[in-house]
Design goal:
The protein contains 19 helices and 11 strands. By secondary structure, it is an alpha/beta fold.
Length: 437
């Protein structure tokens, strides 16, 4: 009886012992190539954390931004990890919508992460996101097409140079288009690319009294240049092409020149995804009349909304996905040239990376020389290069992007698109109570 009683006690204890609780993290991210790789490699994280399961929500850029903004502003709690950037992190953190990274583990080596990127993801001395990759802009061009046409790309091209070279390599009969640029509407799509062009022609979004400046001659010159390049030497349907569409066009050999994010260089160096790996040249992004503000600074980063009920597990995932070990994992999987760039000093100190990535120095130079606080010829009351760092800009930029796309598509003149942009911006700023005292 004593033995039976002992057995029964043991069985009851086993039954009553709680099972290891399983946490499911919902991760919202953009459908860019590096994030698709992160999702694929995340089995490694789950193997090391058997009590954490990952639920992925991978969305197109504009859709992601809309859903995340709606969710976090209403404390919806749908997501445990959000992919956001230098625009959202400081503002959302200041409002108490994000969980701060106050106690980063020592082995993460936070000091290895570039200070400029950390600063851009911080507010009030608190860090609210960790960078997955950081980027600026560069000019990608087909060396073979230029050699065939007998032209060379200057180390520092102007937008006039881009047009002249684009004209000579434009060959639509053979499926090659001289110039590819983002036309797809969105504050992070076409507006994010047109704004540095405008900066380099001396334009600004607002004067020091927060009065909109989109009806200025500088904006007209910049947008006309951009629209004419796509009209004369761009691919069909350019007004619908965003980052991913242009990346696919260039990688498949259909673009002669592409000005866009430096992060693209790694993708174009991957033989599994690019047909032009041995044909790509890299140089500085073009200027209009001035070099100041002609290239942006951005980071896609991972953050934990304050509404998440799995804060500790969410941060554990972010530490993994933005770590030195993750960079090593990508290098083993697809090669050093393809690792997430722009975040860690150790990456650029690694001889294997610099040997595999001929674009590494240019990328770092562009990131280090992009000044979020001094990107325009005339003084402005805002920070930002490709965006204006105020909450209202997300809505304004989205609406202005529609006007820019209409001009690129030939549905409106540049004058009409800028007039409509000026009017809607004035209205939105007035409704928001600007100028604020």
């Amino acid at each position: 009886m004593r033995v039976m009683r002992t057995l029964m006690t043991g069985l009851l204890a086993a039954v009553s012992m709680p099972a290891l609780a399983e946490t499911t993290l919902t991760i919202a991210t953009v459908n860019n190539n590096d994030m698709v790789v992160m999702q694929r490699l995340s089995d490694t994280f789950e193997e090391a954390h058997p009590d954490i399961k990952l639920n992925w929500v991978v969305l197109e850029e504009n859709t992601l931004r809309q859903r995340l903004t709606t969710d976090i502003s209403t404390s919806g709690g749908q997501y445990d990890v959000m992919t956001i950037g230098l625009f959202e992190a400081p503002m959302w953190g200041e409002r108490g919508w994000l969980s701060a990274f106050d106690t980063v583990p020592a082995d993460y080596d936070l000091q290895d992460v570039f200070q400029s990127v950390r600063d851009g993801l911080s507010s009030g001395g608190k860090l609210f996101a960790l960078p997955f990759y950081a980027e600026s802009q560069m000019t990608f061009y087909r060396k073979d097409l230029m050699e065939k046409a007998g032209v060379t790309m200057p180390d520092q091209p102007t937008w006039k140079d881009i047009g002249e070279i684009g004209a000579k390599i434009h060959d639509p009969a053979n499926g090659v288009y001289g110039v590819c640029l983002r036309g797809k509407p969105g504050w992070g799509e076409n507006v994010g690319q047109v704004t540095p062009v405008a900066n380099s022609y001396g334009a600004r979004w607002f004067d020091m009294d927060w009065k909109a400046q989109l009806d200025s001659p500088q904006w007209k010159e910049a947008l006309t240049t951009y629209v004419d390049l796509l009209k004369n030497y761009g691919p069909p349907g350019a007004s619908s092409n965003g980052y991913n569409e242009n990346l696919a066009l260039f990688a498949s050999g259909k673009c002669g020149i592409w000005v866009d994010a430096t992060v693209s260089a790694g993708f174009l160096a991957d033989p599994e995804q690019s047909t032009v790996i041995d044909k790509v040249g890299y140089t500085h992004p073009p200027v209009g009349k001035f070099e100041k503000g002609n290239h942006s600074l951005w980071s896609w980063a991972l953050a934990v909304p304050a509404s998440s009920k799995s804060q500790e597990a969410a941060k554990a995932f972010i530490y993994w996905a933005t770590s030195k070990d993750y960079i090593e994992l990508v290098a083993k999987d697809t090669g050093w040239a393809t690792v997430p760039p722009g975040t860690r000093k150790s990456t650029y100190d690694n001889a294997e990376y610099t040997a595999a990535a001929p674009f590494a120095k240019l990328t770092l130079d562009m990131i280090n020389t992009a000044d979020m606080t001094d990107a325009t010829q005339e003084k402005v009351p805002y920070a930002g290069i490709s965006f204006v760092g105020i909450p209202e800009f997300q809505s304004i930029g989205t609406s202005v992007g529609q006007e820019f796309a209409a001009a690129i598509a030939g549905q409106k003149s540049v004058d009409d698109a800028l007039k409509a942009s000026q009017d809607l911006t004035v209205r939105a700023m007035s409704q928001a109570g600007y100028p604020k005292k």
